[in-house]
Design a protein that fits this description.
The structure is a single chain. The chain is of the alpha+beta class. The protein folds into 2 domains: 104 residues, ATPase, nucleotide binding domain (Nucleotidyltransferase, domain 5); 97 residues, Nucleotidyltransferase, domain 5. Helices cover 35% and strands 28% of the residues. It is built from 7 helices and 10 strands. A 5-stranded mixed beta sheet has the order 3-2-1-4-5. 27% of the residues are buried.
């Protein structure tokens, strides 16, 4: 990139949309603008993978505002990604076509593991350098990602279908929390996480993961931690 050029990233999340704009200065991107709007797309997704009109329009209106801010950024310096809710759409192109027109940029629907990789890179760049491996957990609106990495390199990643918006709508309709609903939610979430259940221990000053030995996924992750 040339000195002074702009670059931007857009995240179409299940709960909110985010955009950051940076200027390339002295070899590094310097943040100059940050936008966030709550769209709660996951709340408009039905069991058949259709997005209702209200949440669809809310998302498109947000992208149109983001698109105005991107007017001065070269297209090759913009990356826009959609995450769990867009992955669940039965006919994603029916949303992507108007969404890309509103934003003025192509939108890529990323896999759960690619989403996890990007999350880890964002976190790692904001933390001091460390020789120890790190576990990053991101609880989103539609999914939760677990990533083990070292310095700036994600080594193992997992994405599961447990998110705050989707769980709230499924287990706490009307926003009412009861003891029975809470325990039902805990059991169902534990079932979804059964292949990715982790607790962090610190033996002898070193981070480690305790994991159930019966899980194939757990064994794969443990090899990445050893």
């Amino acid at each position: 990139m040339q000195e002074g050029e702009l670059l931007a990233a857009v995240d179409l999340g299940s709960n909110s949309f985010h955009m950051i704009v940076a200027r390339y200065e002295h070899g590094v991107p310097r943040l100059i603008d940050r936008l966030r709007e709550t769209t709660r797309m996951a709340a408009g997704l039905d069991v058949n993978g259709s997005l209702d009109a209200e949440h669809r329009q809310r998302a498109l209106d947000c992208l149109a505002r983001f698109g105005q801010r991107l007017a001065g950024v070269a297209p090759q310096h913009v990356r826009a990604v959609g995450t769990n809710t867009l992955r669940q759409l039965l006919h994603p192109q029916e949303f992507l076509r108007p969404a890309e027109r509103a934003l003025g940029q192509p939108i890529e629907i990323v896999s759960g593991r690619e989403e996890a990789r990007l999350i880890f890179l964002g976190v790692a760049h904001g933390l001091p350098s460390s020789r120890q491996r790190r576990l990053v957990v991101d609880i989103g609106g539609g999914s939760t990602e677990f990533i083990i990495g070292h310095q700036l390199e994600p080594l193992h990643a997992e994405s599961i279908q447990v998110g705050c918006v989707a769980s709230s709508l499924r287990f706490f309709p009307g926003g009412k929390i009861t003891r029975k609903r809470w325990h039902t939610r805990a059991r169902k979430s534990a079932c979804c996480c059964s292949n990715s259940r982790w607790t962090i221990a610190k033996p002898a000053g070193r981070n480690a993961l305790d994991r159930p030995a019966r899980s194939r996924s757990s064994r794969r992750w443990s090899r990445g931690w050893d």
